[in-house]
Amino acid sequence: MQLQTSNRFRILSFASVAMIFFTSAVCAQVTGSYTTTADVPLRSGPGSNHPAITTLPKGIKITVVGKEGYWLKVESKHGGKPGYIDEQFATRDAVARVAPANSKSPSVAGSYRTLREIELRQGPGNKYPTVARLPADIKVNVVRADGDWLRVESKKGGKPGYVEKRDLERTRE
Fold first, then answer.
1. What is the predicted pLDDT for the residue at 163?
2. Of the candidates 92, 126, 148, which is a domain's last residue?
3. Residue 41: CB atoms within 10 Å
4. Looking at the structure, do residues 83 and 136 belong to the same domain, yes or no?
5. What mean pLDDT, rounded, does the chain reach?
C-alpha cells in the first residue's frame, strides 16, 4: 500500500510540474511585442460582440499579455485599459518587417483625429521642443511613421511636427 501511494504521489507531482511547464511555454509563445498588420478595433472583451474602445492603426507596436481563443489581450504601454484584438491582425515582432524610418508609408498616411489634447513636437520624441498644442478631437494629416511617432503636416499651412501614435485614431473620410 505504501509503495502504491508513493508512486501515485510521484505521478501526480510529475503531471503537475509538466502542466505548469506546458502552460508557461504556451504563454511565453503568445506574450510579447507584436505589430499590427492592419487598422484593427481594440475591443473591451475577447470577441466581436464586445464594443470597440478605439482603432489601433496599422504598423504600431503593441504588448500582448495573454490570449483567449483567437483574441490577443493587449496591454497599454501608457496606462490605458487593456483590450482585445483579433490575432489575425497582428504579427510577432521577431518576424515583422519594419519599413525604413525615412520612407513614406502609404499604409500609415492619411486622416487621423486626436484622442486628447497633445503636443506637436519638432522631432520624433519627447526630447524635441513643442511646436504647438493640438486640441482633442481634431483632424490631422499624417504623412509617415518614424518609430512610435507620426509625422503630421498641415494641408492649410500650419507648422509640421510629430505626435505619438497612441494619441491618434485613424478616421475614414
1. 92
2. 92
3. 17
4. no
5. 77
